[in-house]
Design brief:
The complex is a heterodimer of chains A (482) and B (102). By secondary structure, chain A is mainly α. Chain A has one domain (5-479). Chain A is 76% helix and 1% strand. Chain A contains 20 helices and 2 strands. Chain A has helices at 9-26, 28-31, 37-55, 71-98, 102-121, 125-142, 150-181, 186-195, 201-219, 227-234, 237-260, 267-289, 295-312, 319-349, 362-365, 367-381, 387-401, 405-431, 447-465, 468-479, and strands at 61-63, 67-69. In chain A, strands 1-2 form a two-stranded antiparallel sheet. In chain A, a hairpin with a 3-residue loop joins strand 1 (61-63) and strand 2. Chain B has 102 residues and is mainly α. Chain B has a domain at 26-89. Helix content of chain B is 75%, strand content 0%. Chain B is built from 3 helices and no strands. The termini of chain B are far apart. The chains are: A mainly alpha (482), B mainly alpha (102). Chains A and B meet through helix 6, helix 7 and helix 10 of A and helix 1, helix 2 and helix 3 of B.
Chain lengths: 482, 102
């Protein structure tokens, strides 16, 4: 069988850029290159990867029996590459100021993106696991890269220890599923589970519980969420943004592949677990977010809550709910990235206490940034005309059609509650004067910061008003699963 | 031939000991060793299943090798982070790492 290496060009381009950055970083004195070149290279590499992924839409081929390049892979490739691109454009000034070992930092972000793509594309348990660990390991190191910051090291330690336990639990689950399906290839697992001929129920049940617990650690779903707020607070803000967008998206993509494919035959066994996880995550994530004073912790809990909405898609699993969830995922990622980039821009100029009070009077000092942050927060809460409303509406509608009205009632209640704590930030920005002058008055954004934030802002509005192209692409991507 | 159950019981015991260690130890390096115990349990599981059920492809054996390699990488990485923490605080007791809470 011929294997077409052109199909993995996006990953190759990301990895080669990473290698080049590492090489230039090691020999920067000899070659006489400055620090400015690393973000440039990372932007070029991720844009190239997104472009190549666009060209590869419509393929449906499996490489080496383990790596599937189809529209679902293409969707996640484009999402993850564009997230990385926007993140680097919006945050490179911040990184220049506050990050040690800048070359290695960009290398780690690139490998993390590759890991995320491999997780979604892999159709074999070993490949999937290696991708997952590539993503996690890169982020363990990246979250410790703040200069002279005790919190950053502590966040990284907590992340590596709890992440290690999480992946051990996930692996135990995988081994049990391997024991009951007797293969690591998704195709064979699906056939064996559907036939049910050699099928060991005890192994399967233990395996599913451990698998979902392990993925719950990676997703920071309640009750496995305790690491998330600490790591989000301690890590550098761009890494926090990456954690709450790319790493979540990749795990959700893995769930699409795994639950919509090989484990579809045993849906009656894992469905209750996902319902429990989703309801707990929605309720607890949103309720704890209310009392947070630290903006990064608050956004951590809010993203825990948002994961609950996404997990609902697997409750009444059909191609309709999955494509709605994929659409909601892209809207959520754009919105969340917008907020984080605005916060990164704010802390590039101001002292980083990460408190909600820092944003006092921002509407006077920098109206554009205040507008961007409020638009993002309203979109997360689900205000009409912004991405959050339209995508959430379609997701909830799809789940109601599958007969799970009660869970949607909880979700709507919780997203109303979430409006309260999002409004806390908006209140600080618009209603208070900056009396203690902890915010630099009247400053301007740099061109690259303008580009990143306004493009994302337009994207959020565009998805909210005219989301049809995104939705039809999501639908087309989900078709490959069924 | 030793029955499959024996391997599974051994691996479950190892996994539980490892998990207990993670929950009860205060020293970061001992927690890391406990995580390694959990991964060793997983390796036993994979090898046992693959030699009982998957005798054509032995995917489980390969998976066990990958687990060992990735666990080694994880230890290297975690030790680096622990060293950083030690430089800052002169201790690797995880109870002292208490700046981030609530």
């Amino acid at each position: 069988m011929m294997n077409n290496y052109f199909l993995i060009l996006p990953e190759i381009s990301l990895l080669l850029t990473g290698m080049l950055i590492l090489f230039l970083d090691a020999f920067s004195k000899e070659l006489g290159v400055g620090r400015k070149i690393f973000p440039m290279l990372a932007i070029i590499g991720s844009l190239l990867s997104a472009l190549l992924s666009f060209l590869l839409i419509g393929n449906n081929e499996t490489l080496f029996d383990i790596y599937k390049v189809d529209d679902l892979t293409a969707y996640f490739r484009i999402l993850l590459s564009l997230i990385l691109c926007f993140l680097v454009i919006g945050s490179h000034e911040y990184n220049d100021k506050k990050i040690t070992h800048i070359g290695e930092y960009y290398f780690l972000l690139l490998t993390a993106t590759v890991g995320g793509i491999v997780m979604v594309a892999g159709v074999e348990l070993i490949t999937m696991y290696v991708g997952l660990e590539l993503l996690s390991f890169s982020l363990y190191v990246a979250s410790s890269s703040l200069i002279n910051d005790k919190q950053s090291g502590e966040a990284s330690l907590k992340y590596v220890l709890i992440g290690g336990v999480g992946s051990a639990i996930l692996l135990f689950g995988l081994s049990m599923i391997y024991g009951s399906a007797q293969s690591t290839f998704y195709n064979d697992i699906a056939i064996n589970f559907l036939n049910g001929d050699f099928f060991n129920l005890e192994f399967l049940l233990v395996g599913l519980i451990f698998l979902i617990a392990g993925l719950g650690f990676k997703l920071s779903a309640v009750p496995f969420h305790m690491w998330a707020p600490d790591v989000y607070q301690g890590a550098p803000t761009p890494v926090t943004a990456f954690l709450s967008t790319s790493s979540k998206a990749a795990v959700i993509g893995l769930l699409f592949r795994l639950l919509g494919g090989p484990l579809l035959g045993v849906i009656e066994y894992w469905q209750p677990l996902i319902i429990l996880l989703s309801v707990l995550t929605m309720i607890i994530g949103n309720l704890i977010a209310i009392q947070q004073k630290n903006i990064k912790r608050m956004l951590a809990y809010s993203s825990v809550g948002q994961i609950g909405y996404l997990l609902m898609a697997f409750v009444g699993l059909s191609s309709y709910t999955l494509s709605a969830a994929l659409f909601h995922l892209s809207g959520y990622l754009a919105t969340n990235l917008l907020i984080f980039i605005a916060i990164i821009i704010f802390y590039t100029k101001n002292k980083e206490n990460s408190l909600i009070n820092d944003f006092k009077g921002l509407a006077n000092n920098q109206p554009f940034l205040a507008l961007i942050i409020s638009a993002g927060l309203f979109s997360l809460a689900g205000m009409p005309l912004l991405a959050g409303f339209f995508t959430k509406f379609i997701l909830f509608q799809a789940i109601v059609q599958n007969g799970f009205l009660w869970i949607v009632v909880i979700a709507v209640t919780m997203s109303t509650i979430s409006l309260y704590y999002y409004l806390q930030i908006i209140k600080q920005m618009y209603l208070f004067e900056d009396n203690d002058n902890n915010c630099v008055s009247k400053w301007n954004l740099t061109p690259s910061q303008y580009i990143a934030s306004s493009l994302l802002f337009l994207l959020v509005i565009f998805i909210g008003i005219y989301g049809t192209p995104f939705y039809s692409f999501a639908e087309q991507s989900i078709m490959v699963l069924f | 031939m030793i029955p499959l159950e024996n391997f599974l019981i051994l691996s479950s015991i190892l996994f539980c000991i490892g998990f207990y260690g993670v929950l009860s130890r205060k020293n970061a390096i001992l927690i890391l060793i406990s995580v390694e115990l959990m991964l060793a349990a997983v390796g036993i599981n994979f090898v046992a299943f693959s030699s009982f059920y998957d005798t054509e492809r032995y995917s489980g054996h390969i998976f066990a090798l990958f687990v060992v390699a990735i666990a080694a990488a994880e230890v290297g990485l975690a030790l680096g982070i622990i060293i950083r923490l030690f430089r800052e605080r002169k201790t690797i007791n995880i109870d002292e790492a208490n700046e981030l809470k609530w």
